[in-house]
Amino acid sequence: MPTISMFYGILIQMFWDEHAPPHFHATYGEYKATIDIYALTIREGALPRRATQLVLDWTELHQAELIRNWELCRANHQPQPIAPLK
Fold first, then answer.
1. Which residues in the chain come in under a pLDDT of 70?
2. What's the whole-model pTM score?
3. pLDDT on residue 19
4. Which residues neighbour 43 within 8 Å (Cβ) at sequence distance 6 or greater?
5. Which of 37, 35, 29 has its CA nearest to residue 11?
6. How far apart are CA 9 and CA 69, in angstroms?
7. Where are the chain's structural domains?
């Protein structure tokens, strides 16, 4: 599972050959969540409140890049790194 970004201790990763809808995985310590790229919501799991807000803000800023990476992963290609939140 490639890590496409990392910021404030949060890992952002995408799997190859995932099921729809387009999403990615965020890990922060022992917390894990699946984030819907279009809806900008947590689909599964949970993150602490502050980490959730950081991830959702980052998702909104990089939505087009995340969609391109989703399409790359669905075609079994390596996703591209995305700039961290600063």
1. 1
2. 0.93
3. 79
4. 21, 23, 33, 34, 35, 36
5. 29
6. 21
7. 3-74
